[in-house]
Amino acid sequence: MIESEERPGRGLAIAAMAVAAVSFVLAVSTWMAWLLVRPKLLSGAVYPIVTQVFLLVLGALWFVALLAGVLAVVFGLVGGARSRSGDLARGGALLGALTCLVALIGAVTFALSPTWAPLQLNYDPGSYSGQFGR
């Protein structure tokens, strides 16, 4: 029979692997949507509010995947990733760390340039008529 102290570690190892797998798929799917769907939305005849909402949802999904990856790493470490028999927990922690890396790169990409549109500044020091309706 399994000791009662070992049982929570096994459950946490399974949870780490499950959370890591789901969050990794979420992070990769978000990248696919960012790279494949977003350019078509920006260049197509779609309402600008739809495009902005889509980009904001993608940014939020990267942050959710990042949090889930951190949770998988914590579950893996608590579940026995450092022990000799902790292969499942170690796998969950490593996949969670990979998920954190993929999601962090996506979150930084989103934060730096959510639309990838070049910034256009119209600097005319003597006239503010276009901005204030005069």
Concise summary:
This protein has 134 residues and is mostly helical.
Strand-helix topology:
Elements: H1 6-36, H2 38-43, H3 48-78, H4 87-112, H5 129-132
Helix pairs in contact: 1-3, 1-4, 3-4
Describe this structure in words.
- The protein has 134 residues and is an all-alpha fold.
- Helices cover 73% and strands 0% of the residues.
- The protein has five helices and no strands.
- Helix 1 packs antiparallel against helix 3 (48-78).
- The model has no long low-confidence stretch (mean pLDDT 80).
Structural class: mainly alpha
3D shape: elongated
Task: Tell me the helix content.
Answer: over 70%
The end-to-end span amounts to 83 Å
Supply database-style keywords:
134 residues; mainly alpha; 5 helices; elongated
